[in-house]
Design goal:
- The chain is an all-alpha fold.
- It has one domain.
- About 80% of the residues lie in helices and about 0% in strands.
- It contains six helices and no strands.
- The radius of gyration is 19 Å and the shape is globular.
- About 15% of the residues are buried.
């Protein structure tokens, strides 16, 4: 059996590692990750304890979940499609994202100051679904563009 280096698989694994490392931050460090936004809010006059600051911090954290898994889904789809066309690629991608998000939340149950939240799994999966939609939309646009170029 011959090993060949696959860049798309390597990038996918690297991104999974990034998600794992971000999830491995303890509760305090994880909260400080969104500290840049909080500093910006203080600068424009929205101080600590403000309901606006709390809501925006929550939204930023959840947008981070959504975006991490949007990217994960796109990377997984790129890898799967490289291996050959499959009508079930979207299904396998959603399944992969859901299972990885679930394992990530389970992992967080062992990290001090963190805990699992099924709502985060749902947000992550929604991000993955959005990634699939964006990827497929881009592929269709590129196919149409190629068809138009070849007709000329």
């Amino acid at each position: 059996m011959r090993f060949t280096f696959n860049t798309k698989f390597a990038v996918l694994c690297l991104w999974m590692g990034v998600i794992f490392l971000l999830s491995h931050q303890n509760g305090q460090d994880s909260s400080e990750t969104s500290g840049i936004l909080l500093e910006l809010l203080k600068f424009i006059g929205i101080g600590p304890g403000s309901s606006v600051q709390g809501a925006l911090s929550f939204l930023v954290r959840k947008a981070g979940h959504f975006t991490e898994y949007l990217i994960l889904a796109i990377l997984f789809l790129r890898y799967r499609k490289e291996r050959g066309p499959s009508g079930k690629s979207a299904f396998y991608t959603v399944l992969f994202v859901f299972l990885y998000a679930s394992s990530d939340e389970f992992h967080q149950s062992f990290v001090p100051g963190r805990g699992p939240a099924f709502s985060d799994v749902l947000i992550d999966t929604a991000g993955g679904l959005t990634g699939i939609i964006l990827y497929e939309w881009k592929q269709r646009v590129m196919e149409r563009k190629n068809q138009i170029c070849f007709k000329k």
